[in-house]
Amino acid sequence: MYAIVTDNEITKFINHPKSLVIGDVRYPAKIFSVWSASELNAIGIYEVVFDDSNKKDEKWYINTNQSFDFDGNEVTASYGTATPKAHADTTWSQDDEDAGDLPSDKEVGDVKTEGLKTQLIRTIKQQASGLLAPTDWYVVKASEVSDYSVPTNIATYRASVRTKSNEMETAITNASNTPALETLYTYTTDSDGVQSRPLGELPVLES
Question: What's the whole-number average pLDDT of the chain?
Answer without folding.
Answer: 95
